[in-house]
Amino acid sequence: xxxxxxxxxxxxxKEIFEQxxxxxxxxxxxxxxxxxxxxxxxxxxxxxxxxxxxRIIIVACGTSWHSGLVAEYxxxxxxxxxxxxxxxxxxxxxxxVINEGDVVFAISQSGETADTLAAIELAKSKxxxxxxxxxxxxxxxxxxxxxxxxxxxxxxxxxxxxKAFTAQLTVLNMIALRVAHxxxxxxxxRYHELLVELENIxxxxxxxxxxxxxxxxxxxxxxxxxxxxxxxxxYNFPVALEGAxxxxxxxxxxxxxxxxxxxxxxxxxxxxxxxPVVFIATRDSSYDKxxxxxxxxxxxxxxxxxxxxxGDALIPQMAEFVIEVPKTDEAxxxxxxxxxxxxxxxxxxxxxxxxxxxPRNLAKSVTVE
Length: 369
Ligand code: G6P
Known about the structure:
By secondary structure, the chain is of the alpha/beta class. The protein has helices spanning 11-17, 19-27, 47-51, 62-79, 88-91, 114-125, 140-144, 163-183, 188-209, 212-222, 237-251, 287-299, 333-351; strands at 31-32, 37-38, 55-60, 83-87, 102-108, 129-134, 147-150, 227-232, 254-259, 276-280, 303-309, 321-325. The strands form 3 sheets. The chain has a 5-stranded parallel sheet with strand order 4-3-5-6-7, with helices on both faces. It has a 5-stranded parallel sheet with strand order 9-8-10-11-12, with helices on both faces.
């Protein structure tokens, strides 16, 4: 087992550090910005169904559901296709409306999650075309899907999903760009910019991983916290959910992820001088609004930990702790901004003496309802 962990103390840490490679592997042979090439071999026969889709329904569970939320933004922004992101367990039991012209995406690391599998069986029986985004080759979901794309992140052993998440975002981004390009809903310029930026993501994730020592120090300070709030907007809203999920899964600290603007409708009541609030506040179209949300937390004496874009001059004047990540396109930022949150939950869990690779009550793959 020590050999399998490749010198890391836990599988989770190894998998966090494998992300530059996993994201690179996911793009290999599929994307070349130089040649303006974006080819997904697993999406051929039904590619036109996707391009002409009237609606996309994404079904998934857990971390994969968070990838689906980011993908909703990709597909709507780039392809102008309306998207619904569904918990597979809810979708399957509510007699969902599936029309001709709808396509369904199932996102699953293991490809074996019972609820996701049952949801796509149902959709398939109603005539929907199913695209699978799985990590495990030959898994049940990949077999039952009409077409799809593997994430090629390599085996993920830690129960808390890390590299599968960033690889899912990579694949979903490539799919959305490919569809948008064919549909003509993206300008050539933006399309090309995004291909170049995608290719740069592994190097940016590598840089974000260098924050490890700084994040360890922040973890020391908050290891005994009883609660955490994570806030973000736009593309960083699902990142807030994912950051909170990672922390509760492995450290057993209660954590809530929320869209930052929605805080005033509830979570703001929880904020006092004891409450750590993690803001994912990178430079994007909602930056100014997030800055106001940070001020609202400060006014209530909350302790702000902010993930910001390198060189940000404003937020460091407000936040107790600032974590600077490399700049990228806002659509791709989740792949970078999630890295410090994975590390934060990892270090806090280790400091609390938790079993990070096999947290209590959780399973890597949930093959029962
Ligand atoms: C379990 C795992 C999570 C995972 C979820 C969905 O709860 O502990 O890490 O996100 O299942 O799994 P899937 O294999 O379908 O992505």
